[in-house]
# Entry
Amino acid sequence: PTVNMALLPKVLLNRCIIRRARSASYSTSSILQSAVPLPTHTNRGSKNDYHQNGYGKIVAVSSVPSSDVLPTTVHTHFTELRHSSPMRLVPSRRTNPTAYNTQHRRENGASNRSHHREGVLLHLSSYGGGLVPGDKLNLDIDVRGKGAMLAVMTQGGQRIYRPGEHFRRYENYNYEISAALSKPNPEMNSLKVCQSTINCTVEPGATLFYLPDPTVPYRSSAFEERRVFNCQFASAASDNNNNDQGSLIAVDWYSSGRTYSTDIEERWAFDYLATRTELYITDESHHEHGRPNLIESLSFGNKGISNRSPPAAASMGQSFDAMATLLLHGPTSLPVAKRAVELERKLAEKLTRIRRDDSVFEEQANGDIDGLDELLESLGGQVLLSVNPVEHNSDNQQKQSQSHNNTHMVRIIAENNEDVYRALHFCLKECSEHFGGLEPYKERIHSSKTVREKSIPLSMQQEKETRENKGEDLEAIVDQLGLFPVQNNNKNHNNNAWFRMCTLSDSSLPVGSFAHSQGIEAAAQMQLFRDSDHTDPLLAKHLSQSCSIEALSDFVYSVSRSNARFSTPLVMAGYFLMQQSEQGLELDELHQLWSKIDDYTDTMLITNRPGRRASIDQGLGLVRIASSFSDDSDINHDSGNTADLWALISQSIDKNGMDAMQSRRPPTNGSSQTKGHAAPIYGILSAKLGITPLDSCRVFAFGAARDAVSAAVRLNLIGPAAGLSLLDRIGRKAVEDGLEEGLVGMLYSSREELGCDEFSSAMIDRWLQSVHTCAPMLDAAQPLADLLQVRLFRT
# Structure
């Protein structure tokens, strides 16, 4: 039959998929009323605005009322399901779930007969197989009722396409300094970026599985994603009642693109990629979220940063083409976390000796998990996996007792996507009982062993052209942010500030920075610097003899750039705090600002325990040495509360919490005290000593680059002279790239607050939201330091 193609887009646009609820508690009329076709939200005010908003709504409800006790079998049904182009939602039927579940319970004994939950499955896709520039997706997911289970999967990888000729005419979409200083039109800036926002609410006793395939950003594409998960717990829940906590299992996964393209470099060659995940653990009776319990934020800006083969490619190393995170929370996720912990240990044992101390899942230490040996044999390349237990800090004692040991962040980097499929399938295998025997990601594995052709990447060591007048551009951004050196009345102030800046950058500064390797030691023992030319297994174990200088250079670059990117907004926030103290801001307001900055820093680092301990350890060292600097009237203290501010910071730091972290024990109770992280304290101290804001950020970032190179020298990976060359050739430029990204991100995020004469804490909030990391290889390797049996460094 013939098809009227003119009407086809309209039909697809208004298409709506409805599944009737089987529960008698929901009427058909209410379902139909909530499932009206969604209009498109295109902005017709501008002739150049071609982007399209796609919206989706998913509501999955348990057949059990929230007040009832769970029966033997709990069913989940859709009560609301709708979408608009370019988003598409496709519910899937399970194949004979009752027969599978009966057989599964028979094979696994009577222990599984008490409560069995049958979830619903849905596939998320888009019209056209991907996103084009300007597409914006918004998806709301609600999982309601005890025993409710929802799995959201995808039909394939989500592709982010590069812009066409229309979009290439505009050059102000990227995060370049020139674009930041020229104040581009925000609407024009948003034309290039594809955006995705996912808001999920999981009620007590319910579970959400968010298991997508990888997102593939093609060359010159731009993509930004924000995922917000709100897992609730019952107000009057007991500590041992798992049915009163919401559970979450969520994957976030990115692939490098067309790796084997021979004409141009397409590996990690996107222009912009940002992903942000927030986890809230809230009381079901409270509607306000408050501060996130966990933040995972990555941001890459490849365009305009340098002429080096894309910085994102350097941050992923020369061989890793896939990065993924697996966020686990709640009682349903504990079996997944157990399998992930055992996989982490087995992968590490293949490369180095690990310690066997008390762990969260000590019962798994002496037993083999089904399928683990087959998985290890089937991997075709190197896979780096780390499991990070999250220790929540909250004033709510009930919240902390329930969430303790229930949240984990699993990070994975691999040389190919199929190995990530295999690792995720292994970890999630036990979840199949809830979906009629469907094992997540099993259908994506097409062979018994991964076979990967070794590609020849373009040289990562191309010399970068230094942009002229970059220092002047960065100073202009600092001026726009409203940051300036504190006032002084001493004509020798500049000389004293310069000398003190050198003192802060000196390796003899007694803050313990050289006790931390910036992830170099863990990466070395995981053989990330192994020279691929050496095939002798005995020689490969001696990394000092087979270390690849290219791989080490890439790691130092990514560490230095990510530290500068991450710390710049935090150092500036601390600097701004001292400015407000000098201008006479009330001590109570200073305390609130300091707590906000430090708490946010702790939330960003909570999924990286060694990095978190190192930050707090060095922060306490800075507080300890602050009084060693003489007060020779360099700074006018008449109008400020500088001494009171330092006393406030010192008194607010939780010393007991630090002792618990050093022994890798969870905190015994909730605490409202601050932790004392290094970056904001460094900004406060720099402002006190009269150092300029930009120099403060540079010196702090230099310290991280210097410590990384020093660790490589002490581990005998590189010689002292070669280390000095590496620091000057790679570290210096990486620091400037990260500093540029951090300042431009601050400028973009705080445009609405700039120019205000009155103090506004909203500007601090916006600065904090611009804090990102950009080194997935570091984030995956650094937490493995706690597994190492032989260590030279504390972290």
The radius of gyration is 27 Å. The longest helix spans residues 549-582.
